[in-house]
């Protein structure tokens, strides 16, 4: 029997509807119908047990991720990466403890990989009640640290790609200490998603402890090998900040949300929601400074909520800036957000 997502499936649709009604409490039956059909289509099309196992585990892990993070969606969270091998007697470890404490004091929760080293330090600083552990099953090194062990906000994943989704999907900011392959992987993953617009803009902070040149040398490599060979542009360096202290790291994150609240694309337009309105003079400045990132004959203008935003009534009171953005220059978009946040 051929199955369709967007065409009727006869008695099967009736059976799915009956199942949904029997279970009860399904708030988005359209999506659930498609998920059930996707599972049935996979069963028809793929006889590879390993493929089906991967799909099955991924759905379960993503479902559990949403369940755990769901009650805390109203609280901003900072994902922190760094080496699992950093020892407690290392000054960098103590700096990570301070970062966790400062973030908690500023009203943030923290997300770490839930393991030892920098991850444990940040969880210690924030405390168990304000920590998430997003862990991975490994044959070495990556056991849950004592802060998140047994914590209902400690999730252990089988697949790295599901874990990476949780790290960035739930984050309102990302901070990185020096680390190994995993830390560099997450730095480049975050940059790639933000640079291509596959992730809403968030502050990305690279923390070089005093006397450390880890991120400085990484930045030098980006300039000499990537920028100078035309693989990236100067605008891409707007997407992150390098700092040397915990206070500066938290200040960068706080400043990003000083006026900026969130963004959403509506019918091809970029809608930036703000905590406070802009003056007409400020809007004119922004329009003049960022005409280069607009579509042909595009504009930047103030607005109230658009009709397509009706599904977010809790944001109706926020003033908007509507930008006819070309969806290419995300480094410049970050500079626009910085200008929104400036006096």
UniProtKB/TrEMBL annotation:
One of its GO terms (biological process) is cytokinin biosynthetic process. GO terms for molecular function: AMP nucleosidase activity. Coiled coil: none annotated. This is AMP nucleosidase. It is an enzyme of class 3 (hydrolase). SUPFAM superfamilies: MCP/YpsA-like. Its EC number is 3.2.2.4. It comes from Desulfonema ishimotonii. One of its GO terms (cellular component) is cytosol. It catalyses: AMP + H2O = D-ribose 5-phosphate + adenine. It comes from the Bacteria.
């Amino acid at each position: 029997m051929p199955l369709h997502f967007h065409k009727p499936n006869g008695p099967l649709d009736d059976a799915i509807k009956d199942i949904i009604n029997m279970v009860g409490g399904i708030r988005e039956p359209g999506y659930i119908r498609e998920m059930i059909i996707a599972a049935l289509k996979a069963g028809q099309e793929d006889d590879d047990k390993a493929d089906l196992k991967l799909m099955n585990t991924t759905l379960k892990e993503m479902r559990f991720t949403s369940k755990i993070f769901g009650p805390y969606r109203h609280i901003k969270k900072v994902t922190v990466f760094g080496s699992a091998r950093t020892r407690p007697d290392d000054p960098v470890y103590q700096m990570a403890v301070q970062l966790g404490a400062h973030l908690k004091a500023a009203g943030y929760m923290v997300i770490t990989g839930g393991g030892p080293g920098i991850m444990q330090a940040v969880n210690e600083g924030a405390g168990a009640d304000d920590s998430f552990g997003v862990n991975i099953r490994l044959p070495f090194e990556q056991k849950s640290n004592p802060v998140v062990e047994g914590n209902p906000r400690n999730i252990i994943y089988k697949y790295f790609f599901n874990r990476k989704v949780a790290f960035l999907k739930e984050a309102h900011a990302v901070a990185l200490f020096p680390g190994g392959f995993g830390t560099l992987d997450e730095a480049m993953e975050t940059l790639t998603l933000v640079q291509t617009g596959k992730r809403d803009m968030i502050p990305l902070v690279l923390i070089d402890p005093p006397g450390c040149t880890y991120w400085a040398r990484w930045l030098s490599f980006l300039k000499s090998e990537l920028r100078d060979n035309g693989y990236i542009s100067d605008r891409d360096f707007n997407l992150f900040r390098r700092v040397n202290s915990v206070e500066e790291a938290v200040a960068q994150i706080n400043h990003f949300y000083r006026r900026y609240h969130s963004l959403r694309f509506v019918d091809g337009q970029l809608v930036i929601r703000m905590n406070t309105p802009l003056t007409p003079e400020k809007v004119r400045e922004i329009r003049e400074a960022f005409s280069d990132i607009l579509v042909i004959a595009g504009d930047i203008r103030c607005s109230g909520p658009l009709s397509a935003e009706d599904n977010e009534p809790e944001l109706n009171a926020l003033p908007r800036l509507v930008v006819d953005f070309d969806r290419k220059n995300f480094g410049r978009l970050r500079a626009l957000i910085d200008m929104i946040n400036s006096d």
